[in-house]
Design a protein that fits this description.
single chain; 337 residues; alpha/beta; four-stranded mixed β-sheet
Amino acid sequence: MKTVSIIIPVYGVEKYIATAVQSVINQTYKNFEMLIIDDDSPDESVKNCRQFSDPRIKIIHQNNRGLAGARNTGIRHAKGDYLAFLDGDDLWLPQKLERHIEHLEKFPDVGISFSPSALIDEDGNFMGAYLMPKLSNITISDLFRESPIGNGSAAVVRREVFDTIKYQDNLYGSTEDYYFDENFRRAEDLECWLRIAIQTDWKIEGIPEALTLYRINTQGLSANLLKQFESLEQMIEKTRSYAPTLTSRWENISRAYQLRYLARSAVRLKVGSDAVTLIHRSLSNHWLILLEQPRRTILTLIAAYMLWLLPKSLYAQIELLVSNLLKNVKKQPVVQN
């Protein structure tokens, strides 16, 4: 039976980390090691991890290097045939690893297996929404538009994939192997997946079950939205350094799709003025997004303006009505409990 190394970066997640660790322990696939990377967390996160006596758990401390740095440390220590990543505030359903290992074993040309995600709020309640991305025939152009993988807790990756794209650098006084780029404080996963797609022949493919529970944190919303877009610009510039022709072709399209995604996030988190600004910036970069994905783009535009212009109470009533209608129209994807 193949071994999975589960890498959990830990920084400032004392409220959530015990539940995240327990969701790993509850996995139906039992042959794993859990590497908890303490990124010099200032709170009680690591103390909460130490309450677990499972011998498969190993806690590794490092000076703060950010999410990418914590993942890199985990990869360097990992002994598994497959590597899985779980952010400290997210959760997995019990069948998560089992389903992905089945997928990767069945399709040896797939290097990254991922699943759709169900959205939960800060208290762990299901928000009635999913990240339901494209699952197959994923191309470089898809990754420029938007990451099908969706978040840092959705992917399970073959070890060989990281061996293919690793590079060496000296950022902290000694030469080390790097996989995720530690110059990124956001979008480090998207940058890595795009680099894999451009520089290797490994396929990226999803399975249909929503097995990841992705937590939406509303703190610092406006600043985070702007910083996410700044990270996209950083990713574009890095990709331009090794794939200039591809980047020139796709960069404005990439901006448009990312800005629309951020507009949808602003709508979901009830910041109407930001939502309107972001969807307008999206259309100014690539207005053809209206034709490429008319339903999603037009609904985002309408929702942004309604949220911005209507009284909050009226918007809430309309939102509830639409939500109930959608529940009656289509069956929910597979999410348990």
